[in-house]
Design goal:
Keywords: Signal. The protein has 264 residues and is mainly beta. It contains no helices and 17 strands.
Length: 264
Amino acid sequence: MGNTRLLAAGGALAATLAVAAPVVTPNRAGALPAPARGPASGMEFSAPHGEVEAGTPIVLSGRAGYLDRATGNGGRVDIFFRKGQTAPKVFLGSAAAGSSGRFRFPTRANATGEYVAHYRHQKLAITADATDFLAVFTSRAVDRRLFSWTATNLSCLPTCKAVGPDQQIGAGPVKVKLERKCRQPKSGGRIGFTADQKNAYRAGDLGWRDFPKGDGPTEFELKPAATKGHFYLEWTSATPPEGQLSSCDISFAVSQRTTEKEYV
């Protein structure tokens, strides 16, 4: 919900009141009493949200006229839109303010900017103005990179480890692309997202994928229960035969499908 502004009326009230002016008698000091003030008038006006997606139907609403009266406020409210305070106003249409002063104006949000309302009483020289800001965005689904790690010529004796920084991820699955190429086939490991500082693996945890013999898919999903933690990989190679080397090239990248906003 945007901020509601309460503005003073632009019209003069005293000239429109059908009341005879009283005879004023100077007091002994010769000073005249202060003139009586008319009832306060103005406008309350707001858009229904702070931000919406482009094309969303919205209803602008408010109340105008005498602020302390529940009746006698019938009039017309013209609605305008402008991209900024210095931009020209575009007329959108008009709404009728009932006797209570309340009005509603349905429209469709297409751009970020200010809605401007101008009220005129149907009989009296009373006007009021108010504005409210609304942010409008478009959205698209994108794959956001969360973490990646690459290493070559690792012996992984006894174990290679990669620990990512603590980070916040969105709820939902994450996509992992794992590549590994080891000279010794007897190697394996696991990869996961965890909040555990000891990186303890529990079988069946959907936030982990275990490769005890090194085989398995190169692309897969993890479904962590936690949304705050770190990515972790460990890989272990068996001791190679005498005279042979143990070497692995390992890399993995993690991404997550998310919605990206662009304000228009």
